[in-house]
Structures are given as C-alpha cells and as structure tokens.
Amino acid sequence: MQRANWPGWIAAGAAFICGLSGGLGASRVLYEALFPRAIWLGQLPAAVLFALLGGALALGTWGWLARRAGAEAAIAPLFPLLLALAFLVDPVVQLARSRFLLALALWLALLLSLRLLTQRRWPAALLLAVLVGAVYLLTLGRHVGRADTFEFQVTVPALGIAHPTGYPLYLLLSKPFTWLPWGTVAARVNVATALFGMLAVLLLFVLLWRLGKYQVPAALAALVFALAPTYWSQAVEAEVYTLHSLLVVAALLLMVRLLQAEAPGSRWLIALAVLLGFGLTNHLTTALLLPAAVLTFYFVGQRERWDRRQWWRMIPRLLLAALLPLLLYLYLPLRWAAVNGEAMGLARFVDWVIGGRFQGALQLRAWLDDPTRYTVVGRLLLAEWQPAWLLLVALLGFIWLARRALRTVLILFVTWLAFVFYALNYYVPDLNVFLLPAQMLMAIWWGVGLAALWGWLDRRRGLLPASVLALLLAAPLLACAAGRWTEIDRSEPDERVTWAQGVLAQPLPQGAAILADSEKFPPLYYLQQAEGYRPDLHITVLPDEAAYRAELGARLAAGQPVYLARFLPGLEGQYHLRSAGPLLEVSRSPQQTLPAEATEVDLAFGPVRLAGYQVEPVAAVDPAATALTLYWQATETVGEPLYVYTRWAGAGEAQRPLPPGGQHPAGNSYPTVAWKGEEVVADYHLLPRPLLGSAHDFDLQVALAPPFTPGDELEWQTAVTVPIAPATELAGGTPLRVWAGAHTVARIAAPRQARPEEQLDIYLAGAGESATPFPPQFVLLPAESAP
Q1: pLDDT attached to residue 763
Q2: What is the C-alpha separation between 375 and 427, in angstroms, rounded?
Q3: By the 8 A CB rule, do 331 and 166 touch?
Q4: How many beta carbons lie within 10 A of that of residue 309, not counting itself?
Q5: Which of 169, 179, 242, 388 is buried deepest, with most CB atoms within 10 A?
Q6: Strand 653-654's sheet: what is its strand order?
Q7: SS3 letters for 375-442?
Q8: In what order do the strands lie in the sheet with 538-541?
Q9: From CA 451, how far away is CA 217, in angstroms rounded?
Q10: What's the rounded Cα separation, in Å, for the pair 57 and 84?
C-alpha cells in the first residue's frame, strides 16, 4: 500500500537542498572553465550566490511539478542534482568529468520530469538520443585513426576493398556520409559509426521498455551500455562494431516481439531471416544469433500449431530470405577488378569472405584445454561494470524475467552464451569488441532488474523511493563513465596528421616514392587517398627491412626519387643521403650545390663547413617547434664521425643542447666519415621553441664534435637569429587550478616519467603581474605511491 506524501514544507526543504547542490556544482564547473578570467567564481560570495540561485530554481520547479503530481513525487526529478556532490568534494580538477556529471544530473532531472508529465515512449527516446548523440559527436575522432579505423577511413570514400571479411554492408552504408559538406573525410566516416551506435542504443531502449515496462529504468540501462568503455570507444571512430550491435539488438527485438505474439509469425520470421543475412555481410559473428533464431522459429511454430507441411514450407522461404542479402558480397569481386585491375578469382573470394587468414586464431577446444581463457573473458566482462557488485541487479533481472517469460530468457541466454563461448576460443588482442553483444545482454538483464525494483517500489512506496534507488544503482556506473571522457575522447588534433601535412606540403618531385614505417604510413596515405594531397606520390609500407631494401634498390634503379619515412641502417656507403624536411632522401648521386631557397653562410667546423641554412620559425610538421635545415660540406676528408649539436641561446641565458647527445647528420643516418668529395649534405633538426612571456630574439647555435663530447667543451657558432613570439597557451598538459595572490596557474606540462638525477623541465601556463615571483613548489612521488 502506498504511503501518504510528505508534508509540503518538508518536500519544499528537500527540493531546496537538491537545488543548493546543483547550484554549487554549476559554480565549480563555471569557475574551472573560466579560470583564471573569473577568479571571483571561486570565492565564497559567488558560491553562496549560485547555491541560493540553484535552490530558488529548484523550489520553483518543485512547486510547478507538485501541482501536477503531488509534493513528494515532485522531489524525484530534483534528486539527481545531488550528483554534483561527486565532484564538489573532490579536490582534483577534472574538467571533463565535472562538466559531464553536471550534464548527466540535468539530463536525469529532465528524464524524471517527463516521467511525471507523460507515459509516452518517444520523449524519453528523444532525450536519450540527444544525450548519446551529443556525447559521441563531442568525443568523435576528427582525423585519421589507427589500424582498422585508418583502413576504413581510406576504403569507404573510394569504395575499396577492406581486409577480410570485406564488410560490404558497412562500406556501402558509410559511403553517403563522405558527401557531408563539413569536416575531414575521416570525421565523416566516423559520424556514420556514431549514428549506428546511437541507433543501437535507441533500439536497446525500446527492447528494455518492452521487457521491463518502465521508461526510466530502460533509459538508464541503455545509457549505461552506451557509455560503457568498449562500446563508447567503438562509437567515435570508424569501426564495424556499432553497426554489428545495431543488427544484433534489432534481431533480438524481433525475436522478443515474435515470442510475445505481437507480430504475425511467418512475416516477421522472414524479416528476422533477412536481418540476419544482412548482419552476415557486416560481421560473421552474426552467425552466433542462429541458435536463438532457430529456437524462436520453433517456439513460433509451436504457438501457431503448424502442421508438418507448414514447417517444411517455411524452411526454404527462411533460407532464401537469409541468403539473398549475401549477394552484397558480390561487391568484393566487382570492386576488386576495378581497384586492382585483375579478377579476384573464386578461391580468393571464398577465402576473403570466410576470413581465412584469421582461422588460426579460432581454437574450438580452448574452452577445454586452456582454463586461463575463463579468467581472461571474465575479467573483460567485469571491466565494463564497476563496481562489479552492481551485476547483482542483472542477476535479479535474469531471475525476474525467467519467472515471467521463460522462452524470452532462454533466447537471450543462448545468445549470451554463444558470444561468450566464441570469445573463450578466439585468440585475438582486441577480444573485448567481440564481447559487445554479451555486454549488451548483461545490460538488458540489468535494466530488467532495475525495472523490477522500480515497479515494486513505485507501487508500494511511490515514485520518489523508486527514483532514489534507481539513481543510487546507476550513479556509480555513470560516475565511472564521466571519468572516462578524457581517456575515450578522440576529438583532439592529432600530431601525426600535422606531421604528414607538413611532409606532403614539401616540394617533392613529381612521382617520387615515400617508403614509410607502419606508424607514419597511415596519415600520409590517408591524406593522399581521402583528402587529395599529392596524388602523384607513391606512398608504401612494407613488412620487413629486407623488403624495404629491395624496394629501395628497384625504384632507384628505375630512376625514381625515393624518400624514407623510417630508419633504415647501413645505407651510407651505398647511397648519398640528405634530409628533405623530416624525410631522408636516398640518391645514387650527390647534391653539389645549395638549393635556391637556402641562405648562404660560411662557418668553419674543422674539416667541415656550414655552407647555408633554412629556418622555419614555426615548423610545418610541428607548430610547437622551429625547423632548421643545415647544409654541410666537407672541405677535406673527415677522418672520424662528428655529431651535430643544436641549441637556443640568447635573452640572457643559453639552453642546454637539444638533443642532449647530438646525432649524425641527415636524421642520424649519414655519418661524416661516409661523405664523398665535396657533396652538400642537408641536415634537418626540430628544436622546441622557448616558452616566453614576452617576445625575444634567440640565436640558433650549432656545434660539430665527436660523439659524447661534454656540453661545456662544445664550440658553439651562431647560424641564425630567430625572433620568438610569446606563448599564448600551453597545448596539452594537465589542468591545474592554483590561485596565490596575483598569480594563477592554469596548466602544467611535464614528462610522464623521469629517471633519477635526470634534468626535469616543467612548463607552467598561467598569469601574474605581481613584482614578487610566484614560488611554485613540487613534490615528486614515485608512480606506485601516486593516488
């Protein structure tokens, strides 16, 4: 029996306290965001003002809702504002976490308000779509990714051939997104993945509503899955797993509808077969849904009392419906011929579709022979649910649903078991992505368990206790998700892309070849293939050093200019080497003269002279550095290897050499003892620019000496004087909020690790106009003692 509502004055006081928490949370978020421009936000009067303003707004909202739903029920939408306490009491500044938690609190407040105002499903679904879509778009990768992500970002725009199993459905569905009129091509392909991910979350919400009958638990469980670390990370860059999840949850929804007798059996069974066929053209693990689909077919036939003739008439229709979508795989031979200029061949086609190269990773006896697999899979499953005791809610949901819809539970459990069994036997490093359907099913059971608790409390104690319990169970998961924002966020600029843009902006000869390593190849190849940079260049990555040497020799023999974007030892003596920006040019003939764009100088360093230089005050490949190209020339035979040392000097003090140990010329690849005659050797260096409060002129100084010469014995000569502008901001680093009198510190950048007694440079970004210097003090702790 439901108890009476609270007295109005108690309910109003509770609403006011919730508003105080939300107001204080907003005050801290604004203070951190505007620091140090609005220091007053961190002072007591501002905090009190925001707290009172939040309390007043909450009180007004409570009064408006109380007239429609009662005094006690109207508190429920304000209770989520207490989530702000999670970061109000935390002294550590985590900008993304605090902002996201406040946004989640407001979202939950709106969701519970809708629960009071309407029982319709679409407002909650729309609210879920807005939040999940916003999170995915804000954390979406803007540039080329790595591994498979890079491949899809290149393959989708050109409708090329992806690695086995080909993924034709993903390629064809993602292609229209490359026509969007904004962002990079990579970002547009990523948007397709994010949209598939959001649609999967919405269908999961619909399925949870159908099973649990309550919109708030359904929305919370769908949100928990959407923000789970693996799923979230797969939704912000080009990958096939969000589309796979969309097809899996759509299939499960169809099965549940069929089992609940809310759909005509034969028609929707055919729709299910078509859906499974399309799923197989995206990811072959869709086949793991077949046991559940067969059970659904059997249960529907039993319910509708098919005779033997109806059973045998239905089977061919279902097989045909499942096989027709597989015609999408014809994309592979058609595009193979267009891309590669040759027929794919039946043997290669079959091997590509079944993923023949990956068959060795699937060991079907591993679940018997390798007991450690249970630990691995169990750890991966539990890692998505922190704290793990919250899975007790999923166990409750499993039991509750089993008592009411045994066949539905059987379908869900068979599906979960199939994906877990596959993971037990599949040896790959990214096993967590193959467990996403299993994680989705755990989210379904968790949501059903939450709905069972919600319904029991709502019927007996009212909306407020139900809301409080639901939020207490969801809050730890949402707080963990908020703390993962920075880890998962892919929206920051990628220094690899900046480097590649600088490389391709160089005046490289038409038709030249760049032989790159596996780290530098993706951004170069992506910019060429997807963004149209230098389509004339031949950019290649090869499997091993022997292959690089063979390719290098063949291309040079054919008269093609060749550049290396990787270290390849032992080339000196065979070829002439020189820097071409950060690349290494390999040639059969020496460079005899200075290029026209070089500035001539004549500085003697024993048997070697510096004949000229080029300087980029802001390097194209690294905006935080200055690029210096030195042109060396031997005046006589050099009898020992000499290292090049560089440093900044001026403005009252000289900095230590960068790099500290020096290096061979031409990217540490061309020792002076290998130089032939009077060839001109281009030698490229990147020097991090000094961080200054005001503009200064700095000398770029150079020394040439044997390896490991002590710094105080180097004979420095100035090559060029470079004006350095003041630093306006410090990119990257860890946010700080330090306020001491007239001084503020906003950000710190320091190395992640340093050896004992090693010189440690710490760069602080802040402001201060006091005549007294700001005395920062640092306590360096070993990593194992850090909180």
Answers
A1: 61
A2: 13
A3: yes
A4: 8
A5: 242
A6: 653-654, 643-650, 696-705, 717-724
A7: HHHHHHHHHCCCCHHHHHHHHHHHHHHHHHCHHHHHHHHHHHHHHHHHHHHECCCCHHHHCHHHHHHH
A8: 538-541, 513-516, 562-565, 583-587, 576-580
A9: 5
A10: 16
- State which amino acid sits at residue 764: L
List the one residue out of 452, 188, 441 whose CA is nearest residue 292.
441
pLDDT of residue 654: 44
Q: Which amino acid belongs to residue 508?
A: L
DSSP type of residue 673: G
Residues (pLDDT < 70) of the chain are 1-7, 262-265, 651-661, 693, 727-787
Three-state DSSP string of 288-357: HHHHHHHHHHHHHHHHCCCCHHHHHHHHHHHHHHHHHHHHHHHHHHHHHHHHHCCCCCHHHHHHHHCCHH
Which one, of 469, 413, 471, lies nearest residue 442 by Cα?
413
Question: What one-character-per-residue DSSP string does 123-185 give?
Answer: HHHHHHHHHHHHHHHHT---S--SHHHHHHHHHHHHT--PSTT--HHHHHHHGGGGG-SSS-H
How far is 391 from 382, CA to CA, in rounded Å? 9
Helix (H, G, I), strand (E, B) or coil at 230: helix
Q: What phi, psi does 329 have (nearest 5°)?
A: -70, -10
Quick one: which of 577, 522, 693 has its CA closest to 144? Answer: 522
* Residues in contact with 712: Cβ distance below 8 Å, sequence separation at least 6, in sequence order: none
Give the list of residues 6+ apart from residue 694 with CB closer than 8 angstroms, or none: 726
DSSP one-letter code for 496: H
Contact 394, 449 (CB under 8 A): yes
C-alpha closest to that of 245 among 197, 192, 284? 197
Whether the upstream peptide bond of residue 623 has omega within 30° of 0, thus cis, is no
Question: Rounded to whole angstroms, how far apart are CA atoms 153 and 654?
Answer: 46
Other beta carbons less than 10 A from residue 101's beta carbon: 26
Q: Is 649 exposed, middle or buried (0-12, 13-18, 19+ CB in 10 A)?
A: middle
Residue 701 φ/ψ, nearest 5 degrees: -110, 150
Give the Cα-Cα-Cα angle 247, 253, 257 (nearest 5 degrees): 145
75: its two tokens: 């508190």
CA distance readout (Å), 658 to 140, 499, 536: 36, 20, 36
Residues 93, 80: Cα–Cα separation, whole Å: 22
Q: Are 78 and 59 in contact (CB under 8 A)?
A: no
End-to-end CA distance of the chain: 48
Going by their DSSP bridges, the two strands 643-650 and 696-705 should be labelled as: antiparallel
CB 261 within 8 A of CB 303: yes
With tokens 């509502």, the residue in question is: 5
| Cβ contacts of 452 within 8 Å, gap of 6 or more | 212, 396, 397, 400
Q: What is the 3-state secondary structure (H, E, C) of 695-721?
A: CEEEEEEEEEECCCCCHHHCCCEEEEE
What is the residue type of 769? E
Own/partner contacts of 652-655, CB < 8 Å, gap of 24 or more, are 654/701, 655/690
Question: For residue 742, which of 767, 760, 717 has the smallest C-alpha distance?
Answer: 767
Structure tokens at 506: 């160089």
The H or E element that residue 280 is part of is helix 265-280
Are 56 and 84 a contacting pair, CB within 8 Å?
no
Q: Which long-range contacts (CB under 8 A, 24 or more apart) does 634-640 make?
A: 634/607, 634/608, 634/672, 634/675, 634/677, 634/678, 634/679, 635/604, 635/607, 635/608, 635/609, 635/678, 636/607, 637/607, 638/607, 638/608, 638/672, 638/673, 638/675, 639/607, 639/673, 640/672, 640/673, 640/706
CA atoms of 200 and 196, how far apart (whole Å)? 6
In this structure, what token pair is assigned to residue 210? 């159908």
The two tokens of residue 668 are: 């540490």
Residue-level length of the chain: 787
